[in-house]
Amino acid sequence: MILSFAILALLYVVFLSVLVYIGFDIIAITIIASLMLLAQWYFSDKIVLWSSGAKIVTRDQFPKLHDMVERIVARNNLPKPKIAVINTNMPNAFATGKGKKSAVVAVTTGLMDLLADPEELEGVIAHELTHIRNRDVLVLTLASIFATVAGYLMQFGFYGGLYGGGGMGYGRDRNNGGTMIIVIVVAVIVWIISFLIIRAISRYREFSADRGAAQMTGKPVKLANALMKISGNMRRVPTKDLRQVEGLNAFFIIPAISGSTIGNLFSTHPPTEKRVEKLMEMEASMS
Q: How far apart are CA 252 and CA 54, in angstroms?
């Protein structure tokens, strides 16, 4: 994590230095992009719940689920999050929220049906609670700020150049198309490297959440079993249903659609086999 953020910081210093050198009004772009990113972060939990179809449920509706969450948070001195349920056969779960007070843990009806062993379901819920405890939404938002700025600069530069406006019109020479080419090239490089590093951070946070869940429950093998069941069952879910929720892959405990071996470099999650291997190592050390 330290290495990843150090590389990002160095990358962004170089990025800003180039933009300042050519006279680009980076302050205006940064303010606009930051405001849009903050708005996205502020409304993200509501957007995720709405787009996934998750509904906040009461104890009367799902007493066993509430009891399970309360046992885990009581053992680990954590505040109880809101609990949501998604009515779908796809087995999965996610956590969202800007902080511990607004946190929500959502599980699907398919997950509760699949994991008949309560300890396996506890492992999944503990994984999501670890994301909340570690403030992973905030971590990834902070890591994404300048990648978002670079993305907006690419769009402004491309469309500005396309329509002859010279991007945002800020440069030492507004008629110098070469300036905008430099801006676009630098922004593309920054965006690509940032994208890869942020995906690497996301994969690490999944390993960290697995580890935290194993420590919370004291039973790494149960989470490992749950991950294998979810991953195996996901292959039997119709592709059309998976495509509908593919945009939420970063939130799910197992991506709705996983890529190839090469695609793992761009994935938000490590391969399930690697996660299970790490958990079994923890199980062996505890034994």
A: 13
C-alpha pair distances (Å), 11 with each of 171, 190, 192, 229, 232? 21, 7, 11, 40, 39
DSSP classification of residue 88: -
Q: How many angstroms separate the CA atoms of 269 and 267, rounded?
A: 5
Helices (H), 218-271: 220-234, 239-244
Q: Catalytic residues, which ones?
A: 128
As a whole number of angstroms, the distance between CA 224 and CA 135 comes to 23
Residue 92: how many CB atoms within 10 A of its CB?
27
- Which residue carries 């495509």 as its tokens? 243
Q: Could you count the other beta carbons within 10 Å of the beta carbon of residue 13? A: 11
Q: What angle do CA 136, 277, 197 make, to 5 degrees?
A: 40
For Cα atoms 102, 132, 265, give the angle at the middle one, nearest 5 degrees.
125
Q: Is 169 left (phi over 0), alpha (psi -120 to 50) or beta?
A: left
Q: Write out pLDDT tens, residues 112-148.
A: 999 989 999 999 999 999 999 988 877 777 777 666 6
Decide if 112 contacts 90 (C-beta within 8 A). no
Give the model confidence (pLDDT) of 45-94 as tens digits.
787 888 888 999 999 999 999 999 999 999 999 999 999 999 988 999 99
